[in-house]
Design a protein that fits this description.
By secondary structure, the protein is an alpha/beta fold. It has one domain (5-360): TIM Barrel (Alpha-Beta Barrel), CATH 3.20.20.70. The chain has helices spanning 5-16, 23-28, 34-49, 89-101, 119-132, 143-153, 157-166, 182-188, 195-207, 224-241, 269-282, 293-304, 321-324, 334-343; strands at 52-56, 58-62, 106-110, 137-138, 212-218, 244-251, 288-289, 311-314, 347-351, 357-360. The longest helix has 18 residues, at 224-241.
Length: 361
Amino acid sequence: MNTDYSDWMGYVDRNIEGEDLSFKEGLHLFALPLPVVGRIADEIRKRKCGELVTFVVDRNISYTNRCVSRCKFCAFYAKSEEESYVLSKHEILKKIKDAVDVGATQILIQGGLNPEISIEWFEDLFSAIKREFPGVQLHSLSPPEIYFIAKNEGMSIKETLERLRDVGLDSLPGGGAEILCDRIRKIVSPDKVSADGWIEVMETAHEMGMKTTATMMFGHLERNEDIIEHLFRIRDLQNKTNGFTAFIPWTFQPKNTALYTHIKEPAPVTRYLQVLAISRIVLHSVKNIQASWLTQDFEVGKLALFFGANDFGGTILEENVVTAAGKEYRSAEVEEIANAVKSVGRLVAQRNTNYEILRFI
C-alpha cells in the first residue's frame, strides 16, 4: 500500500466521520509501517482531543487474592490457603483515607473470584465507603467479578448491578477483558467469564446509565485477527450504547505466571505502540485512549502520546496485580506526570473518572 498523504488521511477522515472499518481493513493496519500508523493515530487524536493530556489521582485496592479462576496469565491469585487473604472493611477504609488525604478522587476495588464473599459483604463495604468518603468515585468490580457475584448469588446481572449501584457503585473498570476471543480465553482463562459474558455485563451497565472503561491485555497467545475481533466488539457495543469512557490497551507481564514457560518477555515497545495506534484508528466512537505507564514506564508513556493516546492514566497509589507478575512499580506523583507531559509540549490537567477537568497544572 502507498503511504502518501491521501492514503493515510483516508483513515483519519473515516474515523472522524464515525465510519466503521471492515475486518479486512482493520487487519491491514498491521501491515502499515509503524511511523505511518502512528501518524494516522496522532492526527485523529489531535482532531478529537486537541493537545490536552489528562490523568486521574487514584488507588487500586485488591480486596482478596483468593480466586477460583486461576488464569494462566495471572500471578496474583493465592496458590494456597495460607497465602489467601480478604481485607477487612477497616483496612479498606484506611487505604481509602490515605488516598483521599493526598487528593485521590477515584477508588478502584478489584480482587479475585472468591465464592466466600457475598453480595451483602460488598453492600456493607460500599455503603461504609460512601458514608465516610461521599466525594470519591467507586470505579470498582470488573465484569468477571460482577458476573461471578451474580452467578454465586443466583441473581441476574441487572439485579446485581442495581443492588451495588444503590449502595454506591458508580462505574465499572474494564478489567478481565484480556482478549475478547473465546479461542484465546479457553486457553488462558477457561474458568472465567466468556467474551459474550463480558460484553453482557458492560451492555447491562450501560443500559442502566453506568459508565465503564474497556481494556485489552495483549502480548501473549493472540494473533492480529484476535486483536481486531476484540476492538470490533468494543467498537460495536460503543456504537450501540456510548457507555465506554476510555480504552486502555496494556501488555501482558509474563514473569511468575503459568505462561512464563512459553513467553519470557513482555511484548516489545514497537508492538505496544502499534496496537495502541490501531486501537485509536479503529475505535472511532471512543474518545479517550489511555497510555499504560504502569506496564511501559514513563518514557514509553510519553511516546504513546504521539501514537493516539490522550490520557496518562492514574497516579495509581497502590497496585498488586501487575507487580505480582514481576513488574517493578512505584506510584506516580502528580508533579511527575505533569512534568512528563509538559516535557513533550502538551497541556496537562487532572480529571475525574468521567473525564471532567478538575484543574489544569
